């Protein structure tokens, strides 16, 4: 035994080699497949929107940290993720400069002013989206594109969005009903298959359940996120839609509910944000169920066809309360 | 009294400018600053009320019993608010309609009451008049500044006239309630940074 083995040091004694940077860049990598699909089905301008969004987020972070005299930490990749997620919840037909204002709201107001990474109360990308919906309601709710199946990626470039816009499945379902949905997107079996693969009108990165699941399951496999939040979000949306979503009780369509809109992206990549979600496992389950319940409530009773963005934003500020409330008892703490 | 009348007046314009330094009167500043016109109108109304109530409270300060002073202040302020309300109803009816409930609500605004309690009740009439005028103008300027920011960005206009070309897409967010909170927060932040130097 050598001398160095006997040196006593303060805890922690076992250190992980995993760093914030490693986690963040893995998340970035797992977010790539939906972008590739999006370029394939919606065309090249989705890549431009995404690049503008990422660049704007990174630039905002660098400039604001510089102005505030804080260390510039753009290399940790968190701004890149925010940029990607912000672009993923913008409709593919939106003007390419639109994410810039959203990025300033996301990074500067939501994150930097609250104290930087780790201190933000709300998910930055979703605040960016909520800001964009409030600011450019027309572009954010109508600039949908019909997916192209024959890989003509330049089809939508420079074209007027009004001429080619398509309603999202959730919009059709909310305002025109199931019959119109089948009329527009084919029989249910085709709908399930297409929507699962990602061939549906929707925001840039949210259409494909398959690709988001792949990325999400990889993150769970790497232990970067746990299954609790995604599973409880998706399960509660499916269950509550099945119970309340139809004309009578227990006649809603749960499969359609989780394959359309931003459920998958929200459940795996937005609700699981470390900073704005609870630490305890039971806290995560409550958090996920709250998101699911609010999503279904907004979808069925609210003014918007999709509600997961606001559902997550509404649950975010409950995170500290849930953490405090469900803090595990140490030893016999609190025993009578 | 170390401060001169001029100092009592100028402190309201910067050192104790109500919404930013004293952080008082936030409800109207959030609610009526959608357009510059509203901001200026509200500023003038508050300045008038503040000036008159300060002078009257100061004049009556020896008579008002200290146990019921708050009630007396409220009556004085309410009197002048009613004057403003009736005047606006008579001469600037469209503005009166736009400001709506926020004109009568000046009664419960913290600034006139706060100045009556903290200043006019303890100081002479000239000093109180200067104090009221200064703070009122400071409040009006802050309202106008915030309203300018919100109207230019949120509607692309200033006093109703378009300031940008047709291609400008207004930030609708700015004229909505959350925009008011964000703008006010950012302005407070800028004022604090400027105040530190």
Could you name the key traits of this structure?
A: 336 residues; mainly alpha; 2 domains; B: 197 residues; 10 helices; 2 strands
- The oligomeric state of the chains shown is heterodimer
Kindly, what is the distance between the CA atoms of the first and last residues of chain A, rounded to a whole number of angstroms?
Answer: 48 Å
Work out the radius of gyration of chain B.
18 Å
How many distinct folded domains of chain A?
2
Tally the helices of chain B: 10
First-residue to last-residue Cα separation of chain B:
27 Å
Number of alpha- plus pi-helical segments of chain A: 18
Radius of gyration of chain A, in angstroms, nearest whole number: 21 Å
Helix and strand sequence of chain B: HHHHHHHHEEHH
Largest interface: A-B, 8 and 12 residues
Largest sheet of chain A: none
> Strand sequence of the main sheet of chain B, in spatial order?
1-2
Secondary structural class of chain B: mainly alpha
Please give a structural write-up.
- The complex is a heterodimer of chains A (336) and B (197).
- Chain A has 336 residues and is mainly alpha-helical.
- Chain A has two domains: 20-142, no CATH class; 169-200 and 208-324, no CATH class.
- Chain A is built from 18 helices and no strands.
- In chain A, α1 (20-30) packs parallel to α4 (78-88), α3 (45-67) packs parallel to α5 and α13 (228-244) runs antiparallel to α15.
- The longest helix of chain A is centred in the N-terminal third of the chain and has 23 residues, at 45-67.
- The termini of chain A are far apart.
- Chain B is built from ten helices and two strands.
- In chain B, α4 (36-59) runs antiparallel to α8 (125-155) and α5 packs across α6.
- The longest helix of chain B is centred in the C-terminal third of the chain and has 31 residues, at 125-155.
- Classes of the chains: A mainly alpha (336), B mainly alpha (197).
- The interface between A and B is small, with 8 and 12 residues.
């Amino acid at each position: 035994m050598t001398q160095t083995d006997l040196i006593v040091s303060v805890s922690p004694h076992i250190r992980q080699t995993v760093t914030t940077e490693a986690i963040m860049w893995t998340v970035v990598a797992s977010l790539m497949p939906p972008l590739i699909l999006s370029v394939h089905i919606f065309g090249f301008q989705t890549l431009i929107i995404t690049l503008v969004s990422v660049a704007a987020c990174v630039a905002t972070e660098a400039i604001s940290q510089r102005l505030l005299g804080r260390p510039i930490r753009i290399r940790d990749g968190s701004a890149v993720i925010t940029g990607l997620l912000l672009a993923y919840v913008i409709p593919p037909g939106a003007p390419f400069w639109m994410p810039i204002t959203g990025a300033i709201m996301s990074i500067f107001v939501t994150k930097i002013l609250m104290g930087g990474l780790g201190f933000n109360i709300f998910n930055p990308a979703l605040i960016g989206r909520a800001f964009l919906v409030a600011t450019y309601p027309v572009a954010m709710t109508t600039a949908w594109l019909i997916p192209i199946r024959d890989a003509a990626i330049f089809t939508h470039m420079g074209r007027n969005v009004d001429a080619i816009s398509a309603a999202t499945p959730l919009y059709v379902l909310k305002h025109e009903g199931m019959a119109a949905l089948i009329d527009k997107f084919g029989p249910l079996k085709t709908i399930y298959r297409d929507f699962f693969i990602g061939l549906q009108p929707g925001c840039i990165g949210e259409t494909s359940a398959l690709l988001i699941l792949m990325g999400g399951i990889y993150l769970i496999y790497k232990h970067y996120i746990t299954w609790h939040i995604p599973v409880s979000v998706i399960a509660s949306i499916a269950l509550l839609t099945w119970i309340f979503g139809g004309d009578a009780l227990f006649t809603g369509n749960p499969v359609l509910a989780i394959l359309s809109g931003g459920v998958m992206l929200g459940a795996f990549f937005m609700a699981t944000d470390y900073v704005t979600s609870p630490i305890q496992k039971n806290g995560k389950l409550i958090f996920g169920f709250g998101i699911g319940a609010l999503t279904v409530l907004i979808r069925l009773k609210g003014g918007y066809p999709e509600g997961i963005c606001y559902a997550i934003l509404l649950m975010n500020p409950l995170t500290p309360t849930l953490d405090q409330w469900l803090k595990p008892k140490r030893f016999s703490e609190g025993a009578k | 009294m170390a401060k001169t009348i001029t100092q009592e007046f100028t402190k309201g314009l910067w050192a104790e400018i109500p919404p930013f330094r004293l952080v008082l009167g936030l409800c109207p500043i959030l609610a009526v600053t959608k357009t510059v016109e509203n901001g200026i109108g509200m500023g003038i109304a508050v300045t008038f009320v503040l000036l008159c109530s300060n002078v009257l409270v100061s004049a009556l300060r020896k008579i008002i019993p200290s146990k019921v002073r708050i009630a007396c202040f409220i009556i004085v302020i309410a009197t002048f608010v009613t004057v403003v309300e009736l005047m606006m109803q008579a001469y600037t009816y469209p503005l009166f309609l736009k400001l709506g409930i926020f004109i009568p609500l000046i009664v419960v605004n913290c600034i006139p009451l706060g100045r009556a309690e903290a200043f006019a009740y303890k100081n002479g009439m000239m000093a109180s008049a200067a104090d009221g005028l200064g703070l009122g103008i400071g409040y009006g300027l802050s309202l106008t500044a915030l309203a300018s920011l919100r109207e230019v960005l949120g509607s692309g206009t200033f006093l109703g006239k378009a300031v940008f070309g047709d291609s400008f897409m207004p930030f609708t967010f700015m004229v909505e309630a959350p925009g008011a909170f964000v703008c006010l927060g950012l302005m407070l932040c800028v004022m604090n940074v400027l105040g530190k130097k």
